[in-house]
Design goal:
Blueprint (H helix, E strand, L loop, with lengths): L1 H8 L3 H22 L17 E6 L2 E3 L2 E4 L3 E7 L8 E2 L14 E6 L3 E6 L7 E6 L1
Length: 131
């Protein structure tokens, strides 16, 4: 920190002012990009009141984040030629292996954030927020 202070002390007032403004702008941009809500953890969309569906395509859950109202039934359908599972991180729900065109449904009665993964392909992750 003292090296930064020494560098600032040797700047002309105009250069010092520009350096401070640049630092403030950089800090504000960093705060906007990382200080806000994590979109994967809590999507900004309004909760859905109708039953919802999630497609499994190309080794991804679509959508990767979903906001629903409590009491909503969510149905996953596997469109891939490979089997997939739906397994919540907190063990609130878990499907068996879903082959192509198989479905799995779960009704979300309790508000909260539910992160889930395909236990066969752990790079496949998504989130459901129940309001």
């Amino acid at each position: 920190m003292s090296a930064i202070r020494t560098s600032i002390d040797h700047m002309t007032p105009g250069v010092r002012r520009r350096a401070i403004v640049a630092a403030l702008i950089a800090g504000a941009l960093l705060g906007l990009s990382s200080g806000g809500a994590n979109p994967a953890a809590e999507p900004a969309a309004a909760p859905s009141t109708a039953d919802s569906s999630i497609a499994i395509r190309n080794f991804m859950f679509e959508p990767m984040s979903l906001v629903v109202a409590a009491g909503t039934k969510v149905t996953w359908k596997n469109f891939d030629g490979e089997p997939h599972t739906i397994h919540s991180i907190d063990d609130a729900f878990r499907s068996g292996a879903l082959d192509q065109n198989d479905t799995f449904s779960f009704q979300f009665d309790k508000p909260g954030t539910y992160r889930y993964v395909c236990s066969i392909h752990p790079q496949m992750v998504a989130t459901i927020v129940v309001k």
